[in-house]
Amino acid sequence: MRDGDGSAVWPARLRWRLRGALLWPLFAVLTLVDAALLHVLPISGRGTGLVPALLLAMFFNLVAVAWLGRPVARRLLLRRPDLPRVVAEDRAGVGLLALVTLGLVAGGAIHAPGRDAADRAVRDERDAVRGYVLAHGSAAHRAHLDAMDTEQEADDFFRTCVPGDPATSVPPMCLLIDTNRDPPLVRVDHDRTPNRHR
User: Fold this and answer.
1) Cα–Cα distance, 148 to 157 (Å, whole number)
2) pLDDT confidence of residue 3
3) Which of 7, 75, 123, 185 has CA atoms 20 to 30 A from the CA of 115?
4) How far apart are CA 126 and CA 118, in angstroms?
5) What is the per-residue burial (b if ≥16 Cβ within 10 Å, else e) of 35-46?
6) Residue 81's Cα: distance from chain center in Å?
7) What is the DSSP letter of 166?
8) In which residue ranges of the chain is pLDDT below 70?
9) In terms of Cα–Cα distance, which of 90, 33, 34, 99 is closest to 64?
10) DSSP H/E element including 177
11) Are strands 173-178 and 157-162 parallel, antiparallel or unpaired?
12) For position 47, what pLDDT does the model report?
């Protein structure tokens, strides 16, 4: 410090401030990256929409920074007492954000076989319904195959209804499909209530 006016301290403080200003820009960037990861490489289920993925990524990152940031910064200050507190908190937050992103990559990679199996079950279900309706359905059912309404009741069990034709009194055809079998087992559900009305 020169003549008590602090003029020599300001460059050092500014340097520390700049070095401790990475957290929030990185938070914004990694939140978008994490949302894309959750959308493309989900950690559970078959996928997450973009908006829910963005909200989930923001939640993960906020928890990392707000809940864990200060305790990690305190540990860092014990090892590096020369660091200003704001720099320690910034470095801790940056490290935690990086860990969240790495965790999402690892979780998505671990879940990939489960997601692929779920996608395969959905494809098998649709193929089984299409084959059954083309073989056993009425002309009205065959005409409405693209409007089938499916509800997944378990990982490998589905209920699918194909609309009929109310004008000619053809009711919907509802099927129960077990994709755990090869080929999938298809049974007629005598309850013809469409899934959306149950």
Assistant:
1) 16
2) 44
3) 185
4) 13
5) bebbbebbbeee
6) 40
7) G
8) 1-20
9) 99
10) strand 173-178
11) antiparallel
12) 77
